Amino acid sequence: MFNHILVPLDGSKLAEAALPPAASLAQTLGAPVTLLHLIEKDAPQAIHGNRHLTKADEAEGYLRTVAQTAFPKEVKVEWHIHTAEIENVASSIVQHAEELTPDLIVMCSHGRSGMRDYLFGSIAQQVIGQSDMPVLLLKPTKAQLQTFQIRKIFLPLDDESMHDESLSVAKPLAKAYQAGLYLLTVIPTLSTLSDGKAAAGTLLPATATAYLDIKEENAKEHLQEHLDELTQSGFNAEAEIARGDPAPTISEIAERVDADLIILSTHRKAGTAAFWARSVTPNVARRVKIPLLLVPLT
C-alpha cells in the first residue's frame, strides 16, 4: 500500500485540489507526506490566477502554512523546496520522486497550457509518462477543494489478466476505507474495434462477431473468479460486462454507479507520446470528474 505521499504544489488554488485527497489518504493509511515546490526558470508572475511563488523563503512559508492547515495533526508532513531554477517541471518532479522515494504522487492535472488540455495538461501528462509509480490525478472542482472520501472504487479490467494489477492496490484501499468494489470489462462492438481488428471486422464480420462473443464469455469467467475471491475475502463487490467503445463506456458507467475513485493500470513501454496516443486513459479522464489513480504495470 502507500507508505509515503508526494504532493507537488505551485502555490495556486488549482494545485491545492490535491490536498484533501492527500490528507485523507495520509490519515487513513498512516502515511507521511512530502510537499514539493520547484523554482521555475523565467517563471510567470501569476499561475492559474494566483501569484507564482518564485522565491525560496516565500515558498517555504507557504508550504509550512499548508502543512499546518491542510493536514490533521497526527499526519507527519515535511516539505522540500528545490531552490535551483529548473526548466522542465515534469522531469524535475519525477527526479525528486526518485530521490524522495514516495510510492504515490498526488497532483492536480494542469500545466502551462492552461485549460486547453483541461484535464491532462502537459505537466501531468509528462509525469505519468516518465514516472514508474502510481499517480493520483484530480480534476479541480469546488467539492474536491473541500472534502474527499472513497465509498466505491471502480476497476476497469480486460477479459484476460493484463490489468489485474490494479486489484492489488484496490483491495487494501477498499479495506482501509470500507469501500465497495465495482469491476467492469468492456468488450468492443464491430463498430468500435480499433486498428487492424476494425479492418478485419469489416472484411469478415461473422468471424469478428464470433471473436467478440468469445471474448465476452472469457470476460464472464474472469470476472466471476474475481467476484468469488473478493466475496470470500469479505469485500462488497459487483461486476458488469458492457459492449461498446471502451473510453466512453467506462466513463458513463463510472458516473452511473457513483464511483468515488477509478483505478486504471497503465503500460508505458512505448514512451510518453505513444502511451498517450494509444491509451484510453486520457479519453476516460477528459470525460469524468472522478479522481483517477493510475497504476503502472510492472
Description:
By secondary structure, the protein is an alpha/beta fold. It folds into two domains: 5-146, Rossmann fold (3-Layer(aba) Sandwich); 152-296, Rossmann fold. 42% of the residues lie in helices and 22% in strands. It has eleven helices and twelve strands. Helix 4 (122-130) crosses helix 10, helix 7 crosses helix 8 and helix 9 (246-256) packs across helix 11 (281-287). The relative contact order is 0.13.
Q: Keyphrases for this structure?
A:
2 domains, 298 residues, single chain, 22% strand, Rossmann fold
Helix and strand topology:
Elements: E1 5-8, H1 19-29, E2 33-40, E3 46-47, E4 50-51, H2 56-69, E5 77-86, H3 89-100, E6 104-108, H4 122-130, E7 135-138, H5 142-146, E8 152-156, H6 165-177, E9 180-187, H7 195-203, H8 205-232, E10 237-243, H9 246-256, E11 261-266, H10 272-278, H11 281-287, E12 292-296
Parallel strand pairs: 1-2, 1-6, 2-5, 6-7, 8-9, 8-11, 9-10, 11-12
Antiparallel strand pairs: 3-4, 7-12
